[in-house]
Amino acid sequence: MQVTDILSSKQGALRTVHPETPLSACVIQMADEDLGSLLVVDDHARLVGLLTFREVIRTLAQRQKELRRGPTPPVAELRVSEVMERAPISATPDMELQPLRAMMIRHHQRYLPVLDGGRLVGVVSFHDIAKSVYEEQQFENRMLKAYIQDWPAET
């Protein structure tokens, strides 16, 4: 299985934001749409960063620590460019599943942008991978049971 197979099973458009988007707007979008990440693109649609719930939580924790020492600007005034992961590691559409998982584990990343020759084509998550593997195994099990023919039907 390749990254392109995982992307083909996903529905919906890419969720992107501009680096100058207020962080508060991104948090609302992520909560409303149940998103774990947003791809950050510049005016030329080039990937410049990745915003995940990890960066949001780290920012909130840092701001809470700073509040103990004195006043700080409100989180609502922060821009995505101030908290995003700059130049995130990425995958390619032809990348095989095992190296993809190894890279995600090695770099402790739950979300990876997918670039094809520098052009942003998607994002894959650990959830996407787990779902694709599960569906592939379910299909293989059905085919094997059909081949055996005398296997009891699932209830």
UniProtKB/TrEMBL annotation:
It comes from the Bacteria. SMART domains: CBS. Residues 7-66, 84-139 form the CBS domain. The keyword NAD does not apply. The keyword rRNA-binding does not apply. Gene3D superfamilies: CBS-domain (3.10.580.10). Pfam families: CBS. This is CBS domain-containing protein. It comes from Aquincola agrisoli.
